[in-house]
Amino acid sequence: MKMTKWRTLLLATAGLNLSFLIWFSFAPFMGAISDEFGLSMGAVGVLVSAAMWMAPAGRVVTGWLSDRWGATTVFGIVLVYVGVFSIASAFVESYWLFFALRLVVGTAGITFVVGIQHVAQWFDEAQVGTAEGIYAGIGNAGAGVGALALPVLFGADWRAAFVWTGVVSIALGIVYYVVGEDAATQAAAEEAAEGATVRSLAHVGTRYGVVALSLGYVMSFGLVLAMNGWLPTYFDVGFDSSVALAGAFAAVFGITTGVLRPLGGYISDVLLRRERNILPVFRGRYREQWTFVCLCSIVALLCVLTIAGRTGNVALVVAITALLGTACGWAGGAIFAQVPDMFPNRTGAAAGAVGGIGTVGGIGYPLVYSAMADVQTTYAGYTVDVHAGYVVVAATMLPILLLNAWVFRPQIAARANVDGFGFWFVDTEEASSTRNPADD
User: Fold this and answer.
1) Radius of gyration of the CA atoms of the chain, in A
2) What is the rounded average pLDDT of the residues 414-426?
3) Cα separation of 399 and 433, whole Å?
4) Does residue 286 sit within a domain?
5) What is the mean pLDDT of the chain?
6) Are 335 and 220 in contact (CB under 8 A)?
7) How many separate domains does the chain show?
8) In contact, 437 and 410? CB cutoff 8 Å
9) What's the CATH number where 353 sits?
10) Would you list the DSSP string of 383-421?
């Protein structure tokens, strides 16, 4: 079958959707897993966090490998070994062996940057934001689909769920390797491979734009990872919901995040094409303005979620989580509209850096949530409970907003893919191979 850009987008999206489903397949069964292994709330937070431990470094490496080896090879390999380890985790009786196997299954999340590189190799600048938004949005929705569908299909039998998701992952990995093509042209694939050097990876990872967008992705996609793993437990503990109902409530966040993410990329494309300013600051930096609006919305909605949670009104909380999921999805789409536009010849390396660092939020934020849930006290008139974690996380995001505001200034943003930290990484050859938007 001859691949086209739309078939490639479909294949990559299917692969990412399954990757996210299998990555968070433990979340809707956390109650049953916790009961079987006798886990405390703190241990639950560690297990949720551990699903992301391998992603930061893994994404950086696989993004670079996608440039060097080709996305079809890397995506296929990851899906196959993740499926094998998912099946293995269903048969162990020791918690520590289970924990170790799920660490490996957690590397399913590294496929995100592989698909970003793959899609970017098939779509031009005018469509890449929308295409990446569709890929990442529908793909990320796999976490929400899993939270909703797995308890319905398997009840509380998490072992059966891990086996069957593993089998499907192996099958799709084989299909991806056999059917997929790395780029629209052989020349494009060869150019990406030739530029995939260790020096190039270091150069890209230290540019101002990559650093700012990476941290922005911590507070958008990193938050998505944290919420996907935490929300079923939150609705269970905070509102005494059943496993199936808690999974359904949590799925609202995951599905809105995924389904609406393409709109974030599309709006970024439209603002760029129409040269439309939507803020009185960062004038002429259309993509940056939209990204900043989305990031600010995340901080505001986290604060609102803490307030809503303390009302005890579960319908209100579900509505706010849906709005928060929308803001996270739009921010993710906006950020990954900027990444391939900023580094058209180093998309894998840039996506790996942004996507890898972005997952750090998925490691740290669940620990904050579980710590707040364990305290249950009042300090200086402020109640610390299961709802308090959201406003604490919002406070940690303020320095990231300030850094992005600095980088998004027109005089900095125009060279954000050229100038950066670690100047010793830059040489004449590298600088000349990096497109400077100010020269367009």
Assistant:
1) 21
2) 74
3) 32
4) yes
5) 86
6) yes
7) 1
8) no
9) 1.20.1250.20
10) EESTTTHHHHHHHHTHHHHHHHHHHTSHHHHTTTTT-BS
Distances (CA, A) of 112 to 67, 84, 253, 358: 14, 19, 19, 11
Q: Which of 128-137, 379-388, 398-407, 409-418 has the lowest mean pLDDT?
A: 379-388
**Is residue 2 situated within a structural domain?**
no
In the three-class reduction of DSSP (H, G, I as helix; E, B as strand; rest coil), residue 287 is classed as helix
Tokens in use for 401?
């907003």
Share of the chain above pLDDT 70, in %: 92
Give CA–CA dist 227/362, Å, rounded: 8
For 117-173, what is each residue's pLDDT tens digit?
A: 999 889 887 787 888 889 988 887 787 788 788 988 998 899 999 999 999 999 999
So what's the pLDDT on residue 439? 44
Specify the pLDDT at position 209.
92
Residues 6+ apart with CB under 8 A from 175: 11
Q: 């060279």: which residue's tokens? A: 415
Nearest partner of 81 among 60, 56, 62, judged by Cα: 62
Domain for residue 22, yes or no?
yes
d(CA 104, CA 81): 9
* DSSP H helix total and E strand total for the chain: 22, 2
Cross-strand bridge partners of residue 383: 378
Q: Yes or no: say if 358 and 217 are a contact pair by the CB < 8 Å rule.
A: yes
% of the chain with per-residue pLDDT over 90: 45
Contacts of 88 (CB under 8 A, 6+ apart): 101
pTM exceeds 0.85 for this model: no
Average pLDDT over residues 263-278: 92
Q: Are 407 and 209 in contact (CB under 8 A)?
A: yes
Domain containing 83 equals 7-418
Q: According to the model, what pLDDT value does residue 436 have?
A: 52
Calpha distance 196→191 (Å, rounded): 9
User: What is the tens place of the pLDDT at every residue in 186-223?
Assistant: 888 887 777 667 777 788 888 999 999 999 999 998 99
Would you say 214 and 308 are in contact if contact means Cβ atoms under 8 Å apart?
no
Q: What is the full DSSP assignment across 109-166?
A: GGHHHHHHHHHHTTS-HHHHHHHHHHHHHHHHHHHHHHHHHHHHHHTT-HHHHHHHHH
HEC letters along 59-108: HHHHHHHHHHHCHHHHHHHHHHHHHHHHHHHCCCCCHHHHHHHHHHHHHH
**378 domain residue, yes or no:** yes
Residues pairing with 384 in the sheet = 377
* Contact present, 135 and 261 (Cβ < 8 Å): no
